[in-house]
TrEMBL record:
Its cofactor is thiamine diphosphate. This is Thiamine pyrophosphate enzyme central domain-containing protein. It comes from the Eukaryota. Residues 6-71 form the Thiamine pyrophosphate enzyme central domain. GO terms for biological process: fatty acid alpha-oxidation. InterPro entries: DHS-like_NAD/FAD-binding_dom, HACL1-like, Thiamin_PyroP_enz_cen_dom. One of its GO terms (cellular component) is peroxisome. Keywords: Lyase, Magnesium, Metal-binding, Thiamine pyrophosphate.
Length: 72
């Protein structure tokens, strides 16, 4: 994802009624676990990892909502 797209997404967060961060294997491939953890701790948004993203954040991390399975 491009830097400008990330900035745009972050700028929309204050206007969201019920924001939720959903992440999966792509976050692991991008090695984004540190950034993801920092974002969650800073903003305090609930997170919902897919089964492939499970383990990127500690299970007891702030706002961790469990795991969602995705079936295609």
């Amino acid at each position: 994802m491009y830097h400008s797209e990330i900035e745009k997404a972050v700028s929309l967060l204050p206007h969201a009624e019920r924001p939720l961060i959903v992440f999966g294997k792509g976050a692991e491939i991008a090695r984004a676990e540190n950034g993801l953890k920092k974002l969650v701790e800073t903003i305090g948004l609930p997170v919902l990892p897919t089964s492939m993203g499970k383990g990127l954040l500690p299970p007891r991390a702030c706002c961790n909502s469990g795991v969602v399975a995705s079936h295609w």
